[in-house]
Specification:
Blueprint: H1 3-28, H2 38-49, H3 59-72, H4 79-89, H5 91-110, E1 117-125, E2 128-138, H6 139-210, H7 216-250, H8 279-286, H9 288-309, E3 316-326, E4 333-340, H10 349-414, H11 420-456
Antiparallel strand pairs: 1-2, 2-3, 3-4
Helix pairs in contact: 1-6, 2-6, 3-4, 4-6, 5-6, 6-7, 6-9, 6-11, 8-10, 9-10, 10-11
Length: 463
């Protein structure tokens, strides 16, 4: 490359370099925001969930959160209380907030001027010296800096959306865990009644056999039922512990917190279920995860454009230089140094092809995610309707019939038309009907929670 060619390159780059420098000077004035990008997450949480999130970054802020959590635990916790405590106290969620700080640091860094590089070469012999000094700037970085800064802005917005997805998922998981924990405890209470009735039946059978009024076969049946009832109770107690511990983990509670007391019962079934949303409109408007994928797709498109711009060279340094050859008293020769990568062996085609493939892959994944989202919403709506129908039928038909049968059998027992064992068996059936209704109510509220979560983002089924 001769001197005239070098001058032409420098003159052609001057306007673009000046534009890049002006953009960087403006961007370099940007500093870290006071909220660290958290305000948009808090606003989204209030809009989507009606709940509060905080990001305590100082001891006094953490003390306020701890005090609020402790105050909420002083009374029996409702499902809404549990969700709010989880959003304030779950440390994994707090850790996801730190990603905002990481991303904002990258954003601020992308707006800073790249540091120049100083090179010194100093050799000498017999009073003769060869000294070269150069101060170079990465011109390519300056030229692409506006693009890089814009991509970091998009990435920061992506992180904000990803954090909001984490908030929505935690709220849904906590709601379902609370429902499961309350239902598990109520199931234990019902099974304790079943076990008590079975124990009474087994004891009565032993006495009847001892008096010679019953045979060993009937006694064995009662004892087997008692054993099965005791086993079911043990499994239910274990399930209660597991459900309660899962809820405790999601709420971020440790041994230092007060003992967790839950509301005694689940909410009653509503008189009717809500109208199902328009699936297509909901997917495009409400799904936070699809908004995040859309942002990622836009970022990849910009990244593809940047890769195409820099495909031929990704090293281009230029700056002033001076050279001394001879004794120290000799004058310095002054000029500039230019370092340019020559694309002889690598034209950058592979990098462009990879970027195109990554972008195409993201487009396909986004299209499939939109299909999946519509399907998930339709499935969640169907589960919501079915769970309501099952619970309503259990409440309006099965439970009244169970009460009617119990009342009639009691009359028959009083008239000596029914044995005490048949009466005990009827009591067990009625308790089982109540337990089944409880489970159907639990399934309905879990289906409702899954539907709410699916309308906002992807929800894994707990069934």
């Amino acid at each position: 490359m001769n001197m005239s060619t070098t001058r032409r390159i420098a003159r052609g780059l001057a306007p673009r370099l000046a534009a890049g420098l002006s953009v960087l000077v403006v961007a370099g004035c940007a500093t870290f925001s006071a909220d660290g990008g958290f305000d948009s997450v808090a606003e989204g949480t209030r809009a989507d969930l009606g709940k509060e999130v905080r990001w305590p970054r100082a001891e006094n802020e953490q003390a306020k959160v701890d005090a609020q959590v402790a105050a909420s635990l002083e009374h029996p916790v409702s499902v809404e209380d549990a969700v709010q405590i989880a959003l304030l106290n779950n440390r994994a969620l707090q850790g996801s907030f730190e990603q905002l700080g990481i991303s904002e640091a990258d954003l601020v860094q992308s707006g800073r001027l790249p540091n120049p590089r100083f090179t010194l070469r100093h050799v000498g012999a017999a009073g003769q010296y060869d000294i070269e000094e150069s101060l170079t700037f990465n011109v390519l970085s300056l030229l692409i800096a506006p693009y890089a800064h814009e991509m970091e802005k998009r990435r920061f917005a992506e992180v904000q959306s990803a954090v909001l997805v984490s908030v929505v998922e935690l709220a849904g998981d906590t709601r379902r865990a609370f429902i499961a924990a309350v239902a598990a405890r109520a199931s234990v209470q019902y099974l304790e009644q079943v076990e008590s009735a079975a124990d009474a039946g087994a004891e009565l059978a032993r006495r009847m056999v001892a008096a010679g009024n019953w045979n060993r076969l009937d006694q064995a049946r009662e004892e087997n039922f008692h054993a099965a009832a005791a086993q079911s109770l043990s499994r239910a107690r274990l399930a209660e512990v597991a459900a309660r511990e899962r809820l405790t983990r999601l709420m971020g509670l440790s041994a230092d917190h007060p003992a967790l007391a839950l509301d005694d019962t689940l909410p009653e079934l509503p008189p009717s279920i809500e109208e199902m949303p328009d699936v297509d409109a909901t997917v495009m408007r409400n799904r936070v995860d699809l908004r995040l994928m859309r942002m990622q797709l836009d970022e990849l498109a910009h990244r593809l454009g940047l890769t195409q711009v820099t495909r031929f060279a990704d090293v281009f340094d230029v700056g002033p230089a001076r050279v001394l050859q001879g004794p120290h008293s000799a004058p310095y020769e002054r000029g500039y140094e230019l370092s340019l990568q020559i694309p002889i062996f690598d034209s950058g085609a592979a990098r462009v092809r990879k970027a195109e493939a990554v972008y195409s892959q993201a487009v396909d994944r986004f299209a499939q995610a939109a299909i999946d989202a519509r399907s998930q919403i339709r499935e969640a709506c169907a589960a919501y309707r079915a769970a309501y129908d099952i619970a309503r039928r259990q409440r309006d038909e099965v439970l009244p019939n169970a009460r009617l049968i119990a009342d009639q059998n009691l009359l028959r027992y009083n008239a000596s038309l029914l044995s005490v064992f048949e009466l005990l068996a009827d009591a067990r059936d009625r308790i089982a009907a109540n337990d089944n209704y409880l489970n159907s109510v639990r399934d309905f509220w879990i289906a409702k929670s899954e539907l709410d979560t699916t309308l906002l983002g992807h929800a894994e089924s707990t069934h």
